[in-house]
Design a protein that fits this description.
Strand content: 15-25%
Largest sheet: 6 strands, mixed
Structural class: alpha/beta
Distance between the termini: 51 Å
Number of domains: 3
Number of helices: 7
CATH topology of the largest domain: Rossmann fold
Bound molecules: guanosine-5'-triphosphate, zinc ion
Order of helices and strands: EEEEEEEEHEHEHEHEEHHH
Length: 344
């Protein structure tokens, strides 16, 4: 892990001002003033794939992929795809190079999942994303509204903007589905891999400049979509493996892929098909229904908004939430029930 003379010279680019002297340095926590920043794009059995920008770590160095391990001093701290990290050691990115991650920068968002709704163990699956793209086929397989509601709750809870992508528009009419979801005011894009990939440009507009996590049940066409968006990605597509009965993705880890034009990122999450919602604070769900929230003023204390005493029924019935009120209330209750595990 020694520096090679060819990689560095005296005028290494220093990307962050030295903090030496600003804080007392603990004996077992080195300051790592020479650490270089990078973005974690994949995680595989304790090995992290980190993208380091051009010129960082040495002004002649190109943009490169650096393999890294977690420094012992980080202990059990989790590092996930999307994390901004600081590296030391061999940051040149040669074939045998292995750097060490010594710091994880504060996260702007975390997408968590629990195995099911009662599982207390939650895992962060992606950091620093700003959009959750929920991929659903209009047919083959049929849309699963409860799964979609569940993903919406996960998005709201993580402060990610949801985007619905409805694939296989060549196979079914989109109108019935859109009618169900219209009251939710979630933006959507309709796609078809036929017809010159209908909807792809529109989808790209939504992805531009953002970090978007793609989730979807097996067979909805998520890999087909990701391959069209990022042609170099080579995500395995196809049906379930006849021999093993499993999909071709065996990894459950996410992978970050940069869009070829522009500065957006697609984070593909094979194996992440749903979210346990055990970590979601029920009280926060109503905050995502600003049209209904004022109606809760008349609720009893600690109202779950899914009980006979809830004031929302009367408020909505009196028309105060507008014509979409009843279906909005229905949606809210669907989400609340998804959270309490009743609907699955
Ligand atoms: N008719 C039609 N078929 C599609 C469309 N998009 C994908 N498919 C087909 O649907 C099947 C599943 O597509 P994939 O992209 O592998 O689906 P996936 O969501 O990645 O599923 P896994 O690979 O199991 O995770 C494949 O046979 C695709 O060719 C579409 O827009 N229209
Ligand atoms: Zn209530």
């Amino acid at each position: 892990m020694s520096r090679r003379a060819s990689d560095y010279d005296e005028s290494d680019v220093r990307i962050r001002p030295s903090r030496r002297g600003s804080r007392p340095r603990s004996k077992d926590r080195p300051a790592h003033d020479d650490a270089v920043p990078g973005l974690v794009t994949a995680v595989d059995r304790g090995r992290y794939t980190v993208l380091v920008a051009k010129g960082v770590g040495g002004k002649r160095l190109p943009e490169r992929v650096v393999m890294a391990m977690k420094a012992r001093e980080l202990g059990r701290k989790g590092i996930v795809v999307g994390d901004n990290v600081d590296l030391v050691g061999d940051v040149g990115g040669g074939p045998d190079a292995l750097a060490r991650i010594v710091r994880v920068q504060p996260r702007t968002s975390v997408l968590r999942r629990t195995a099911d709704d009662t599982d207390p163990v939650e895992r962060v699956i992606v950091a620093n994303a700003d959009q959750l793209v929920i991929v659903t086929a209009l047919a083959n397989p049929e849309p699963r509204p409860r799964l979609i509601d569940r993903c919406l709750v996960a998005a709201y809870d993580a402060d990610l903007d949801p985007l619905l992508v409805l694939t296989k528009a060549d196979l079914a009419d989109r109108a019935p589905f859109l009618q169900t979801y219209a009251p939710l005011d979630v933006p959507h894009v309709v796609t078809s891999s036929e017809d010159d990939f209908l909807g792809l440009e529109q989808l790209l507009d939504h992805l531009e400049g953002r970090v978007s996590v793609f989730v979807g049940h097996s067979g909805v066409g998520k890999s087909t979509l990701v391959n069209a968006l990022v042609p170099d990605a080579n995500r395995a597509t196809g049906d379930v493996n006849d021999v093993t009965g499993r999909g071709r993705h065996t990894s459950t880890s996410a992978v970050a892929l940069r869009l070829p034009d522009g500065d957006g990122w697609v984070i593909d999450t094979p194996g992440v098909r749903s979210f346990g919602l055990a970590h979601v604070d029920l009280a926060r769900i109503i905050d995502h229904f600003p049209d209904l929230e004022p109606g809760t003023a008349g609720c009893p204390r600690g109202c779950t908004h899914d009980e006979p005493e809830c004031a929302l029924d009367e408020w909505v019935a009196s028309g105060q939430a507008g014509p979409a009120g009843p279906s909005r209330l229905e949606s809210l209750r669907r989400l609340l029930r998804a959270r309490s595990g009743e609907s699955d």
